[in-house]
Amino acid sequence: MATIQDIGVAAAIYLLSAFIFFLAFAILRLQPLNDRFYFPKWYLMDLRSTPSRSGAFVRKFVNLDFRSYLRFLNWMPEAVKMPEPELVNHAGLDSVVYLRIYLIGLKIFVPIALLALAVLAPVNYTNKTLQSRLKSITSSDIDKLSISNIPLGSDRFWTHIAMAYAFTFWTCYVLQKEYETVASMRLLFLASERRRPDQFTVLVRNVPPDPDESVSESVEHFFLVNHPDNYLTHQVVYNANKLAKLVEKRKSKLNWLDYYQLKFSRNNAKRPFMKTGFLGLWGKRVDAIDDYISEIEKLSKEIAEERERVTKGPESIMSAAFVSFKSRWGAAVCAQTQQSRNPTLWLTEWAPEPCDVYWQNLAIPYVSLAVRRLIMAVAFVFLTLFFMIPIASVQALASIEGLERAAPFLKPLIEIKFVKSVIQGFLPGIVLKLFLSFLPTILMIMSKFEGCTSLSSLERRAATRYYLFNFVNVFLGSIIAGTALEQLKSFIKQSANEIPKTIGVAIALKATFFITYIMVDGWAGIAAEILMLKPLILYHLKSFFFVKTEEDRKEAMNRGSLGFNTGEPRIQLYFLLGLVYASVTPILLPFIIVYFGLAYVVFCHQYESAAAFWPDVHGRIITALVISQVTLIGLLSTKRAAQSTPVLITLSVLTIWFHYRFCKARYEPSFVRYPLQEAMMKDTLERAMEPNLNLKPYLQNAYVHPDFKGDEDWKEEFNLRLQENGSVLVPTRRQSRRNTPVPSSISGASSSSSPDAIPEHSEP
């Protein structure tokens, strides 16, 4: 097992690596070539221009002002001190609330750590239980600071129970105050938000078929009858997935045409050629520019034919529609009430923002969604169980003893003191991290198959599964599988009535593994994220090969989102570890605090569903709190302290009661419903400021599928490219080929948030 010295060596190495990442970031962000990438918001708002460096040629690419490197950490206080209202305007409410999760971690764990290290650590350390009574258990110096070092039946366990109550009350207090703050921020944000199509629009699903009316006619008739004073317009949903694939294929061809035209502009004496075979490795040799122009023209004809088929064919019309109203109040009434006496028909929900719609899943029949969710639930169970096998193997091998058993020839090398410290501090966490690297992609595919209709709901669904997976495999799997394999010899030699006692002690002994995991995944992982190396490399590749206009450059500057589907579950795992081990092994808490501090500084620098994910965050922290209490009950029951069980059960009941009575019932409605009072106030204010406002042109085509965009803009854009098929590039007036202001890597298709880019037909 790792000693305190081993953990100290690993901690020093990880902190040094974090410092190196911060230093590398400071160097990269000072280079003129990277300025647009690291400060994209300022360029998009025209508040910053490309740095101009006069003098030597190298100054255009490298910052030679060495005094600026001496201030390489100045960005930290600037990022942390940014006022919250300014941060909301700059990054949006979602980013601000996401940052507050890290602040909650610091608010909860700093006082808990101080109290636990001052009270529990001395209580645990001043015993000799692990040395005298359980010599068959594999333990380390760190385990002497844990509850495992308390003798059976000791009155000292009442100290741990008292601390569990203190930790619970403090955590609940912080959560209640934070829930109240975020709920107020959300309502204030909604009240001050600019006009958007989703504020007036509802998504209607499971429209019943009518032999005498089309879907469009049924929707119009139903809402004119049942919402006569508020209904404005609607847009039926089409199955345009084939059309989307053709548009995406044409977009790819256009990117390659850009590349070869740019290549030709740099060397006018030589036309670019390519081979038509697989990956351009073999096949007929053709003129690249002429070939791509021909392919694009062919695809354009196919797209026009497919668009015509979809808009005029009744088989492409789904039993769903986006219905827009004359006021926010009318939309709120419709979205939050039952529309039909049959509760399975005319189902309504708030429409996502146009740029947040996941158009592919709108083509899924509503009746098949339940079956899809059942299939994915079963698949997720099997996925979780499958991953238990490699995790159990990791726990068996990621130790000095396990490596020596698996590879005896490495024993002389492993026994070297420094190598031993590095292995114990690095190997377990790194191997587990590698196993988990493919998981987010798998979970996102599962969420897409389930039928989520917005990109934000896709991320929230994937985040929920990632959290459950982390709990079962990373937390429970690492404890149970690791314990069973590590203590196997001890189990064989013990009598049956001694096995529960050994398991209870060994659970506490896994703190060493989680400390190494926190350093690998938390400290080094978060510090590495500030570099954003993958997006930075992609930015420079796009800039070199595809950027021809200022709009293309803005498109290349997009760095993606915060990655809620992977980031939030990771935060929740650290909340779980901190709360579980606060009363068991408090030495783990400083490592949790360092993680939250680093993460807050990093994400302060990197910056909308209006923080709709907050109830999930709060609920998972409460779940972690209850799990910590149940774990303590199990531990104490193996320590002949069963009389403490009713006291701790009472604590769990109080925690759950607090969650439902003071948080969920009081604040959660603000996150799932839009208050009619707020809607009416905003409508009244808008009518007073704009008495002649006509919403119909604004809303009529806001939710048209983005690939129904007419060909006029495309033809103008493509004709300009034909003009560029010469020796000189000419400036273009075209807009970026993406329709959405914040394109997503999830959808594979763009979405229009503006009603300006519309097809000719909004209804069949």
UniProtKB/TrEMBL annotation:
Subcellular location: Membrane
Highest taxon of source: Eukaryota
GO terms for cellular component: plasma membrane
This protein's UniProt keywords: Calcium, Ion channel, Ion transport, Membrane, Transmembrane, Transmembrane helix, Transport
Domain CSC1/OSCA1-like 7TM region: 372-636
Membrane topology: Multi-pass membrane protein
Molecular-function GO term, any one: calcium-activated cation channel activity
Domain CSC1/OSCA1-like N-terminal transmembrane: 7-178
Sequence similarity: Belongs to the CSC1 (TC 1.A.17) family.
Protein name per Swiss-Prot or TrEMBL: Calcium permeable stress-gated cation channel 1-like isoform X2
Taxonomic path: Eukaryota, Viridiplantae, Streptophyta, Embryophyta, Tracheophyta
